[in-house]
Design goal:
The complex is a heterodimer. Chain A is of the alpha/beta class. In chain A, about 60% of the residues lie in helices and about 5% in strands. Chain A contains 29 helices and ten strands. The chains are: A alpha/beta, B mainly alpha. Chains A and B meet through strand 2, strand 3, helix 5, helix 14 and helix 15 of A and helix 1 and strand 1 of B.
Chain lengths: ~700, ~55
């Protein structure tokens, strides 16, 4: 079967209809799925083979409500469908994924897709949320009424209905695609010359010509997109574009109401959908009760006063849990490290190799791995918030506030994603149609504290913030952690306001977001996310952190100093010590010493490397055989000149504030360069964030000293 | 030279290009793979190099 042309399958649907869950089920891949719109913002391709050995290629496209694009992610779908109509990468079958509990609205896109003349399989996803049986007659009615190859009920996240879907996909190519009579767009006589031109110049199918003619006449932006795409692929029709323009202008002059025609077209399509749904008695017992439960919950959860209060309390609870729930597993990891350390000391003779393994690798990697439970707890709660649909409510609550700060409502979900990682957040800004608003969102996104900063916060809080309750309920450590997240978020909004004044907007865009219903998250799905993140965290610890720990151990251990009785470690005079002392004058006003200075340099490889750097340096300096507890080492470290503790609560706050703002992430820099297609914006971003970090730390430390907190 | 020191030097010399390759991978992960290798909350987004099977 090798060498056969793969069957090409495309997935299309509205945002949050579950395309990626279908993609994952079909390919066995593990793309991120969640319960809010805009998870997929670029096309993704999966390959595989059918059970009979035939290969297939499956394309997952971003969610869109219409084939006329408003934003970059929707443009990807429009360009793709345009290519298909020009016979480029035309799929053998389209799987139109729809939310079965909101079928009417989802079917508008399906009617547009079926104009392409490509067999369409309707995947009625979330069929378990439809409060009536989906009978065979209903499915047949949908197939006949909408000109579909097949309609199949699915529950993608549970893997239900895929046996039938796979069987249908396998049969594609064995049968001739039968085009059934369906609604074929608004028929206006004035448009016929353009339909003829499209047929002769571009070879579009009949129904697609009619639909495209309407879009090309009524949406100037769409005709620009088509022209750009034709130029991109070197199509000869571009040479006759003036002919197209004159036909278009002629139609516009003959049709005074041409601007309102797309609405009329959508109205006719909906009328057709309504007729089909009425005929098959779909939704006669509409799930109003289920919807009203979500709406009743929203009355509290998105209440103008209670909603934000509940959100803040929820965050306080989560960050409290990060500290209190992780104590026992963190102790286990520390004990495992001690056991390994003791084993290495027993098994190896004294010497540089043993020192490298214990003071370098074990101390460096172990100091990061110990934070694994806290990372997993954070990921667990973030996944719960996303999958339950609550994150979309947070976006809704913040929308009005965002627009006051010069941001787009669509910016909220990318910013929320930034709490986990800036990269998917920056990718998700593709859903923002205004370039300037998108740029502002990209520039402020690194201010949302990603989970890579958690080890730094947790180390400093664990070492210097007392574990005590405030008001008998809230833990001081959890509140400190929450305040770091809020500091980043509030600064992000202030910077958005500043940037919106500096960067002029070309237009004000609207924000319409479909509110997903509340769902009880699938524990299997949440568990998979937590395991996946745990694996990545450990993989990272075994790669970049281990490599940096080895190098740093060497730099902190050499050159040895002659003590008279032989060479000994003197970290102050080592390579790392020398480097640290060069940096120290610059960072001294922030309350940082040379050791933190070295950590700031190494943390450009990855933020959490600061923790492993400090751990390695303290263990190199320590004469004892045990692996030092870094929190204790930081607390006990004294300045030999004054005899006073080297670090204080103020130092910890200053360092955490520095990490809230500083832009030490290579991947973020790279993706900003990629997404803005320039060096100017990523360089500007790093510069302003570094200046902000320095100034904020300076204010915290020097201000604290003036207030006598040092 | 001390045997342990020779091994240590070899490990350190290997670690330098490896660390550099990891830093470059960090750049690549953002620039072309659109995800963050260094971030624990990174969604796994490889889509074309793994094969699914019906």
């Amino acid at each position: 079967m090798t060498g056969m042309k793969p069957i090409s399958i495309a997935l299309i649907g509205n945002p949050n209809s579950g395309k990626t869950a279908v993609f994952n089920q079909l390919t066995g891949l593990n793309q991120k799925v969640s319960n809010y719109p805009g998870i997929t913002v670029e096309k993704k391709i999966g390959m595989g083979t059918f059970s009979d050995g035939r290969p297939f290629r499956i394309l997952d496209l971003p969610g869109t409500y219409s084939l006329v694009p408003d934003s970059l992610d929707e443009q990807i779908v429009s360009e793709q469908t345009l290519n298909w109509s020009l016979d480029l990468d035309r799929p053998d079958v389209i799987v139109a994924v729809v939310d079965a509990s909101n079928l009417r609205r989802n079917l508008l896109l399906v009617t547009q897709i079926s104009d392409l003349g490509i067999p369409v399989i309707l995947a009625l996803n979330m069929a378990d949320r439809v409060h009536h049986d989906i009978s065979d007659d209903m499915l047949t009615g949908l197939e006949n009424g909408l000109g579909l190859w097949k309609a199949i009920p699915l529950v993608a996240i549970k893997g239900k209905g895929f046996k039938e879907l796979k069987a249908e996909l396998q049969s594609v190519g064995e049968k001739t695609a039968v085009r059934l009579p369906v609604y074929a767009g608004l028929d206006k006589e004035a448009f016929h010359p353009l339909e003829t031109w499209l047929t002769s110049e571009l070879g579009f199918p009949r129904d697609w010509c009619r639909a495209q003619a309407l879009r090309l006449v009524c949406k100037s932006g769409y005709s620009d997109l088509v022209r750009a795409q034709l130029e991109k692929i070197g199509h000869s029709a571009v040479e006759n574009w003036t002919e197209f323009m004159s036909i278009r202008d002629s139609i516009r002059s003959q049709t005074p109401n041409w601007r309102s025609l797309p609405a009329g077209d959508a109205g006719k399509r909906y009328a057709h959908i309504d007729a089909v749904l009425t005929k098959i008695k779909w939704g006669s017992d509409d799930p109003l009760n289920r919807r009203s439960r979500s709406e009743r919950a929203d009355a509290w959860l998105t209440h103008p006063v209670l909603g934000p209060l509940i959100f803040v309390l929820l965050l306080v609870f989560i960050f409290q849990a990060i500290f209190s729930w992780a104590v026992v597993p963190m102790d286990w990891i520390s004990q495992a490290m001690d056991w390994l350390n003791a084993g290495l000391h027993r098994g190896l003779p004294p010497g540089p190799l043993r020192d490298l393994l214990t003071d370098g690798i074990l101390a460096g990697v172990g100091s990061i791995v110990v934070f694994l439970p806290q990372i997993l707890i954070l990921v667990f709660f973030l996944t719960l918030l996303e999958d339950s649909g609550y994150m979309a409510r947070v976006a809704f609550m913040l929308d009005r506030f965002m627009s006051r700060m010069g941001l787009h409502g669509r910016s909220v979900l990318p910013l929320m994603s930034g709490y986990a990682c800036a990269i998917p957040g920056i990718m998700a800004t593709r859903t923002i149609d205004s370039w300037k608003e998108r740029l502002i969102t990209i520039l402020i996104l690194p201010l949302m504290s990603c989970s890579a900063r958690l080890p730094v916060y947790a180390l400093m809080i664990g070492a210097f913030i007392p574990n005590q309750k405030i008001g008998g309920i809230f833990g001081l450590q959890g509140l400190t952690l929450v305040s770091m997240y809020f500091l980043g978020t509030i600064t992000a909004l202030i910077m958005a306001k500043v940037f919106s004044r500096l960067i002029r907007k070309e237009k004000t865009s609207s924000f319409i977001m479909e509110m997903p219903p509340y769902r009880i998250p699938l524990m299997r799905s949440v568990g998979n996310q937590v395991i996946l993140r745990g694996k990545l965290f450990l993989k990272n610890a075994g790669k970049i952190i281990m490599a940096v720990s080895i190098i740093l151990w060497f730099l902190a251990s050499y050159p040895k100093v002659d003590s008279g009785s032989g060479p000994v470690n003197n970290i102050e005079r080592s390579f790392a010590g020398t480097l640290g002392h060069v940096i120290e004058p610059v960072i001294r006003p922030l309350g940082f010493d040379w050791k933190i200075g070295v950590g700031l340099v190494t943390s450009f490889a990855a933020r959490e490397v600061l923790v492993s750097t400090l751990a390695t340096m303290y263990n190199v300096a320590d004469e004892q055989d045990d692996v030092l507890d870094l929190r204790t080492a930081l607390r006990m470290d004294t300045d030999p000149a004054t005899g006073k503790p080297r670090y204080s609560v103020l130092t910890a706050l200053s360092l955490m504030v520095f990490f809230v703002f500083a832009a030490q992430c290579m991947a973020t820099f790279a993706i900003v360069r990629h997404e803005t297609n320039s060096w100017k914006w990523p360089l500007f971003m790093v510069t302003y964030l570094t200046v902000l970090a320095y100034l904020a730390s300076l204010v915290v430390y020097q201000g604290g000293l003036r207030l006598g907190w040092g | 030279m001390d045997f342990q020191l020779i091994i240590v030097l070899a490990i350190v010399l290997l670690a330098v290009p490896y660390a550099w390759s990891q830093i470059r991978a960090g750049w690549k992960s953002g620039d072309s793979n659109h995800h963050c290798d260094h971030c624990p909350a990174n969604p796994e987004t490889d889509s074309s190099d793994r094969k699914g099977r019906f």
